[in-house]
Amino acid sequence: MDYTRETWFLLCSIPFYSILIGTEILLSNWKHRNFYTLRDTFQNVYLTLINAGLDLFLRWAFYVSVLAWTYQQHFFKIENLFLYWFALFILEDLAFYIQHRIDHYCRLFWAVHVTHHSSEHFNLTTGFRSSVFQPVYRFIYFLPLAFLGFHPFDIVFMYSITQTYGILVHTRYINRMPGWFEAVFVSPSHHRVHHASNVPYLDKNMGMCLIIWDRMFGSFQDELTEEPVKFGLVKPINNPDHPGKIIFHEWQQIGADLQKPVSFSNKLKYIFMPPGWSHDGSTLTAKQMRDAQKH
Q: Alpha-carbon distance 275 to 267, whole Å?
């Protein structure tokens, strides 16, 4: 399969990212906002390099072949080129929303995704703070697209484009976009909410490019003036500087929970229920915490 188009896109994006990140760092230091730290930036680079390496390996070794086989079974094909790419963008963004929502509501997948949320800083490099093992299963959500007649290469290429947009909304330098824009597209304000550890903001705004999915499916939350965003996790990581701890800490906690003297069904719930679920109420899910605040 020819990856020339995606390769050129990624190569062109490197100077683009470098200029934007460099500008944000300069502005942050000049205005003494401390949006960046050397340790946090290094962690973001370290995590994205591992993620990219795993993604490239699995792409060649496994998941493109699965997408290609699924594509061979397709029963439908959009012939109009404009409609083809527009439909691919819409459907792939929806597929990402579904994947992202499951990542937040199933602890097994949250254990992978939590790395992306673990920083207490929020800047353009946070977009590169990758969920390291996500390439192992992300392609599953794209299988329906191949079955609908979208070529595997086009699916991979579109993901690179939408992911670029998803990186750009990791900034604190844009306060609000125009109202029409924020009604349709994910904005930096929307995504700041997504990265917040404030209880009202947990598990909200999970779209990559389009915020319409969150508005349609009840996961939208506006950024509130009276609720300043606090970035990071509800329960911070012990020893967050450890290169392995930052990736595996939630897996270690799942292992500890499975050692508890509880029934087999409760052990399964510690794996598949939303993060924070506990058999005795000692820890709470995001919904339980929100309900507790209302009473």
A: 13
C-beta neighbour count of 101 within 10 angstroms: 18
CA-CA distance, 212 to 221, in Å (whole number)? 12
Euclidean distance between CA atoms 177 and 190, whole angstroms:
10
Parse the chain into domains and list their residue ranges.
Answer: 4-217
Model confidence, pTM: 0.94
Rg of the chain on CA atoms, in Å: 20
Taking residue 187's Cβ as centre, other Cβ atoms within 10 Å add up to 21
Residues in the chain: 295
pLDDT above 90 covers a percentage of the chain that reads 86
Q: For residue 154, how many other CB atoms are within 10 A of its CB?
A: 18
pLDDT of residue 56: 87
Q: Where are the beta strands (DSSP E) in 145-278?
A: none
